[in-house]
TrEMBL record:
A biological process from GO: cell adhesion involved in single-species biofilm formation
GO molecular function, one term: kinase activity
Keywords: Kinase, Transferase
DNA-binding recorded as keyword: no
Domain of life per record: Bacteria
UniProt-listed InterPro entries: CheY-like_superfamily, Diguanylate_Cyclase, GAF, GAF-like_dom_sf, GGDEF_dom, Nucleotide_cyclase, Rev_trsase/Diguanyl_cyclase
Protein name: diguanylate cyclase
Enzymatic class: transferase
Domain GGDEF stretches: 362-490
Single GO cellular component term: plasma membrane
Lineage, uppermost ranks: Bacteria, Pseudomonadati, Pseudomonadota, Betaproteobacteria, Burkholderiales
UniProt keyword annotation of Transferase present: yes
Length: 490
């Protein structure tokens, strides 16, 4: 014979007998009859034999990746058709809540939950509603207000992210936008790079400083709170974390610090650049009240987390592209062996300096220099030693130049110095200083080398090609004159 009338009949579902016994001990007296089952299929069979006033699903011990169990519990929620359903969910593993809410209305309680509070929550769901129509009207008004607030929040975050490609600025604007949601007192964005988690930005309405609270701003996974604080748990697990009472973390000092700042609930969501991608960080939202998030609330915050994660990923990509472009520019500009700029870049620089000197009437000089008998160095010691000699000579010259001077590798063992704000007498003294410095430099693996130099003052109406030809001729004249000397261009 089937039983009729749900009354205060309860059905509790959990695979472990110990959990079932704990629930019976805490809440058994609240029911006229309480059934305890271990599987979803057993729950279906029980409900087929008679109406159930309250279905309680305990997610403690559930594995986030157990899709079969999630599907079975979702089916149970769906078969309730709106009848009272309660889900008990550990605060560190709340990913299933929005999934279950998608299959029907339910109330949830965050674990751990002391027996008296659990019993009160159960009693509230079992209690008869005195005016069902009034309750329905109030629920409709509450839903309209919630949807309006969620839409406003979504638009605020979208505006904050619009046309922002810098990660730090994006994080700051997003945190400020999230703080506009009713009840939110503090928001923070944590960023993970190469295993290091740091506070990238935060916005506070309650004078809470997350860096001070966690006693560090970087390397947060090494913090003593890494296993209990919601945003750090979200980074580690890659799952949403919902904490409805700071004391549930099990750290009295941390809980007290949050309570003193008026924090009653914390929602943390992992950030990813794409679905299934690596965790880039977490967004942390602290409330001054406990909010029973609806399906739409979870969906909105999850959607915002996805958008923020995508924004961070795009910012990272932009930075990587800029770094690559800078590297390519460097490779196209600098000689990799000596560190001097290459001939093409040097000729462009000289042409620009000539235009500037002509426009402002400032002196400009150039020096051409070549290592004497460099082919003999290569023949006697080999090309690796020759390359080392080239680097040493270039470094010696570079160390004697002013910040405004530029060293250019023109070809092989020949270089050019572009000396701005330098007259004819000054460039001759600079050339002599360079000649003496190179002659006195001990080279790795071989004897000393000398250089021959040509100097030229660039005339106001002279072009870059003409100036280079003149100074190059002077350098070759210095070599013919016996090497290790300076020749002034005619």
């Amino acid at each position: 014979m089937s039983e009729s009338g749900p009354g205060r009949i309860g059905l509790f579902v959990h695979p472990e007998a110990a959990r079932r016994d704990l629930f019976r001990a805490a809440c058994g007296e609240s029911f006229d009859r309480l059934y305890l089952v271990d599987t979803a299929s057993a729950a279906v069979e029980r409900m087929a034999r008679g109406a159930v006033g309250l279905l309680v699903l305990d997610l403690a011990g559930s594995m986030p990746g157990d899709t079969a169990q999630l599907a079975a519990l979702s089916m149970l929620v769906r078969t309730r058709n709106g009848a009272p359903t309660m889900v008990l969910c550990p605060y560190a593993h709340t990913a299933w809540l929005p999934e279950l809410l998608a299959h029907g209305p339910l109330q949830y309680a965050i674990l751990p939950l002391p027996a008296p509070q659990l019993r009160s929550a159960v009693e509230a769901l079992l209690r008869a509603v005195p005016d069902a129509q009034a309750l329905a009207r109030q629920q409709l008004l509450d839903k309209e207000r919630e949807l309006r607030d969620l839409l406003t929040l979504q638009r605020s975050v979208q505006r904050a992210m619009a046309q922002v490609d810098d990660g730090a600025r994006l994080a700051a604007q997003v945190c400020a936008a999230l703080c506009s949601y009713p009840g939110v007192r503090h928001t923070a964005l944590l960023r993970q790079r190469e295993g290091n988690v740091a506070v990238l930005a935060q916005e506070s309405r309650n004078h809470l400083d997350l860096v001070r609270l966690l006693e560090r701003g970087e390397d947060l996974l090494a913090s003593p709170f890494a296993d209990v604080f919601p945003p750090l748990l979200a980074v580690r697990s890659g799952e949403p974390v919902l904490l409805d009472a700071p004391e549930k973390m099990g750290d009295p000092a941390l809980a007290l610090a949050l309570h003193e700042r008026g924090v009653r609930m914390v929602l943390a969501l992992p950030l990813r650049g794409e679905q299934g991608g690596p965790v880039l960080g977490a967004i942390c939202v602290m409330f001054d009240r406990v909010v029973q998030l609806s399906r739409e609330g979870f969906a909105c915050f999850n959607s915002l987390a996805q958008s923020i994660g995508s924004g961070l990923a795009m910012s990272d990509l932009k930075q990587q592209n800029e770094a690559l472009a800078a590297r390519l520019t460097e490779l196209a500009t600098f000689d990799p062996l000596t560190g001097a700029i290459n001939r093409r870049a040097g000729e462009e620089l000289l042409a620009a300096e000539i235009r500037r000197a002509r426009r402002y009437g400032i002196p400009l000089a150039i020096i051409a220099l070549g290592i004497d008998n460099f082919r003999c160095v290569n023949d006697a010691y080999g090309y690796p030693i020759g390359d080392g000699a080239l680097r040493a000579v270039a470094q010696t010259i570079q160390s004697r130049l002013r910040a405004s001077d530029t060293l250019v590798r023109m070809r092989g063992e020949e270089f050019l110095v572009v000396a701005t704000h330098t007259g004819a007498a000054e460039v001759r003294r600079l050339a002599e200083k360079l000649r003496e410095a190179v002659a006195g430099t001990q080279l790795p693996g071989c004897d000393h080398v000398t250089i021959s130099l040509g100097v030229a003052h660039v005339a106001p109406d002279e072009g870059a090609t003409s100036a280079i030809d003149r100074v190059d001729t002077a350098m070759r004249g210095a070599k013919r004159a016996g090497r290790n000397c300076v020749e002034v261009a005619g």
